[in-house]
Design goal:
With 128 residues, the chain is an alpha/beta fold. Helix content is 30%, strand content 19%. The strands form 2 sheets. The chain has a 5-stranded mixed sheet with strand order 4-3-2-5-6.
Length: 128
Amino acid sequence: MKRPAPRRPREPTIALINVVFLMLVFFMVAGTLAPSQERGIDLVETADLEGRAPPDALVIMADGELRYRGSVLTSASAYLDRPDSRPRDVVRLMPDRALPAADLLRIGAELRAAGVERVVISTMRGQE
């Protein structure tokens, strides 16, 4: 009589699949928590700079139009008159790549004249 072949122990693949699925769900949720950028804007590219994500930035389109959270503003000082309670000593700008530098300087000067201490310009990190 033949002996039955010894069975190999089962691998815990179900546990591995569960861990991978939970990681996938975590990264999907974490990726949707950050506010998205305005549509139709190409950021200026820079390299070797340390930066942070701009959660509440004043977006400047290529034609000079100012937007904040999807709404169009009439002037840079109108950004400071927003009803939220965020500090107004530092303002983040997200200019379009095609925006003329003179317009960017004019908007920065307008913000400084309105009492802003620091104007931070957000750019896209360049390829190294």
